[in-house]
Design goal:
Helix 13 crosses helix 14. The chain has two domains: 118 residues, Cytochrome Bc1 Complex, Chain D, domain 2; 106 residues, Cytochrome c-like domain (Cytochrome Bc1 Complex, Chain D, domain 2, Orthogonal Bundle). It is an all-alpha fold. The chain is built from 15 helices and two strands.
Length: 276
């Protein structure tokens, strides 16, 4: 890039840079502001499938070694950090064995795809590759108070949904029982009390491990670790069905609608040991 030859131009550029930085900070940009476009996320999906899906899988839930990139795992890793932090981390480490081998636009497109898959809204302007701009966009797990997105999630914002609300069906739990017997019962036993090494999945042990966490946390954990020796080998629906079975075995009520394989929904449903 050619250096400005005039001191006046240099001063003006400095003032403009300071002003843009100040505005970015004052604006307190958030991923809930529509910071990417649908078209950009679609490009990112193509790049993700080519460069990332081998390890992180097409559903972004990871292969047990490569971490999940959606749901509770995404929130835990990136909440309250910036899009710039994510951009730099992905560029510095990915693809495995060839970090920084994609174009800056390629990485920005992948970030856009990850944001979309985590149920963050698209907007009218593409996510740029400028690190100063990206660093001003903060990743929040929940919509800011008073935003349209926050108002649109009335059930999560008002009466916090819980496992006492009938979040799965009896039929789904029955499917989960079959899957459990095939994939889990060898270690956790048919009565869910565990073999002394594999933990119990019912009663006080279940309450101690999962109380006040979300169904999304339970889903991410099961997906990342089970079955032993072959994590992430079941379909998302298979894991959801097993969770439904665990809920029914822990005396939580069934309802009229199946528990969906939606991270946004799963993360909003809290596990409470006592009925509200």
């Amino acid at each position: 890039m050619t250096k400005p030859q005039s001191w006046t131009i240099a001063v003006l550029l400095a003032i403009l840079t300071m002003s843009a930085s100040t505005n970015a900070q004052d604006g307190a940009g958030s991923v809930w502001d529509g910071v990417f476009t649908d078209e950009q996320a679609t490009r990112g999906e193509i790049t993700y499938e080519q460069e990332c899906a081998t390890c992180h899988l097409a559903d972004l839930l990871g292969d047990g070694i490569a971490p999940a990139l959606t749901g509770a795992a995404f929130d835990f890793r990136w909440s309250d950090l910036s899009v710039g932090d994510m951009f730099v981390a992905i560029r510095a480490t990915m693809p495995q064995g060839a970090p920084a081998s994609l174009s800056p636009q390629g990485y920005a497109d992948i970030v856009s795809y990850l944001l979309k898959r985590n149920d963050l809204p698209a907007g009218n302007s593409e996510l740029p590759t400028d690190e100063d701009t990206l660093s001003a966009i903060i990743i929040h797990g929940d919509p800011p108070t008073g935003s349209g997105e926050a108002e649109g999630t009335g059930i999560a914002q008002g009466g916090e949904p819980s496992v006492w609300d009938g979040v799965f069906t009896t039929e789904q739990a029955t499917r989960g029982e079959i899957a459990y017997e095939q994939e889990c019962a060898t270690c956790h036993l048919a009565d869910l009390l565990g073999d002394g090494i594999a933990p119990a999945l019912t009663g006080a042990a279940f309450d101690f491990r999962w109380s006040d966490l979300s169904i999304g946390d339970l889903f991410a954990s099961l997906r990342a670790t089970m079955p032993q020796g072959a994590p992430a080998s079941l379909s998302p629906q298979g894991y959801i069905d097993i969770i439904s079975y665990l809920l029914t075995k822990n005396d939580f009520p069934a309802g009229d609608m199946e528990l969906p394989a939606s991270d946004e929904v799963l993360n909003s449903i809290m596990i409470k040991s006592e009925q509200p």
